[in-house]
Amino acid sequence: MIVVAGESLIDLVPEGAPGPLAPLLPRPGGGPYNTAVALGRMGADVAFCSRISTDAFGEALVEGLRAAGVSTDAVQRGPEPTTLAVASVGADGSARYGFYVEGTADRLFALPERLPEGVRAVAFGTCSLVLEPGASAYEALLRRSSREGVFTLLDPNVRPGLIPDPVAYRQRFAGWLPYVSLLKLSEEDAAWLGGSPAAWLERGPAAVVLTRGAGGLSVFTPGYEVSVPAVPVGVVDTIGAGDTVNAALLHGLAGRRLGSLGPADWRELLSFAARAAAVTCTRAGAEPPYAHELGDG
């Protein structure tokens, strides 16, 4: 089983004519939530670990998980409101967000005593590792999972508007790396964080995957680097594309040790992730593909 730990929220996505007063359509979202749904649609055995509101938005989020085949047994519930993210989409389909996070349910996530039986991987990232007090609980889960020998994936998916002290966050990010098996991040994240794949590899991860948007994907390991091109499509928006990459990587690894992968294995895995992300980009909002849309991974 794969466990995805982190926030869920409602993306308010512009619809119709562009502009600051464009109608907003509510869609389920949040990086970890999107990753869990993508894994479920790909046919993976996956559970979501988070705290979700009991309000109407929260009920819709839980129903979305169940519809995708994601276990909700590790989901905590609370009466606090659901986090909202207001998206603005650029001419190239890229998305920027404004967040409404004060007093919301996902911030009050508590460290679970244990994860479901048979966990082989746990994924972390995005707002859940920024907003306290939940951030410390997720960090504790990352460290505990790593110490127990569980594969861990980290996608920082940096949201600068939520980070009051960038220097402190960068230091905290460096402190996570010894507990991370696979680090995945975008070019924008890498530029904001500073450092390099080589430097990050020295701190702990066995591999670093860098997404470059239309420029494709690259993986860096201690011994080699492999890159694949993006799949050309008509882009509606890029919401959820990076989360789909997370899911494709986790699903494609299927319990294999990163150290056992050679360049050809990574080329196949990255190509699968590129195909999956491309499908997501052809749809409004975070709508990852189903297994039958991807063929053999």
Which key terms come to mind for this protein?
297 residues, alpha/beta, 9-stranded mixed β-sheet, 4-stranded mixed β-sheet, 8 helices, globular
What does this entry look like structurally?
The structure is a single chain. This protein is of the alpha/beta class and 297 residues long. The protein is 32% helix and 23% strand. It contains eight helices and 13 strands. The chain has helices at 31-42, 56-67, 134-147, 166-176, 187-193, 197-202, 241-253, 263-281, and strands at 2-5, 9-14, 24-29, 46-53, 75-78, 84-89, 95-100, 121-125, 151-155, 182-186, 207-211, 217-220, 225-228. The protein has a nine-stranded mixed beta sheet, with helices on both faces. Helix 1 crosses helix 7 and helix 7 (241-253) packs antiparallel against helix 8. The longest helix is centred in the last third of the chain and has 19 residues, at 263-281. The two termini are 18 Å apart.
